[in-house]
Amino acid sequence: MGRLVVFEGLDGSGKSTQARLVVKWLQSRGYRVFFTEWNSSELVSETIRKGKKKGLLTPTTFSLLHATDFADRFERHILPPLRAGYIVVCDRYVYTAFARDTVRGCDPGWVRNLYSFAPLADKTFYFRVTVETSLKRKIASRQKISYYEAGMDLGLADDLIESYERFQGRLKRAYDRLADTDPLVVIPADRPIEEVLHVVRREIRPLLAGLPRTEALVHA
Known about the structure:
It is a single chain. The protein has 220 residues and is of the alpha/beta class. The protein has one domain (3-210): 3-Layer(aba) Sandwich (Rossmann fold), CATH 3.40.50.300. The protein has 9 helices and 5 strands. The chain has helices at residues 15-28, 45-53, 59-83, 94-103, 108-114, 131-140, 160-181, 193-204, 215-218; strands at residues 3-9, 33-37, 87-91, 123-128, 184-188. A 5-stranded parallel sheet has the order 2-3-1-4-5, sandwiched between helices. α6 (131-140) packs across α7 (160-181). The protein is globular and about 55 Å long. It starts with a strand and ends with a helix.
């Protein structure tokens, strides 16, 4: 059996950057790695996209569609490489649903039950940043802030930026609560990329014992 490593956090927390850097680092050391992202299953991605575009998703529908997406992705893209001894790196896992869905009003117990089939990761990182940092990085990336990303469906504010700040603030509090109850490794992610990566690598190294490596790179 391989290893499951999860990266969680707000938009702009640096989790996606760190996940990709870790994938490259592990591959350079000869390990077999599989990378997967949230909401990337071909089964329901188009339905989710259209529902978001038309503003048709209720909190429950939003939750169920993403749970379906995750279940399909887990069965077809996460479990097989795990069984084959790969290190599976997930940019978001069940904790994204635990935070987002409950903030949107879904019952926490109901959401956890939806994802009860998913095993506990070998290591889950929570990249903690302030909402101000999240927004600053989002704007700097020049990526458009989406309707649902800003929580506009919740009626928190008429202004997109204000709604984003309020929604991400709720998400941060939800993640902080999860960090108190679940086995999340909290990473202060306001620091420089290389400094954060050093901490992440240190946490991952103990998981690598006994995993196969590509012969040509073992002695590199």
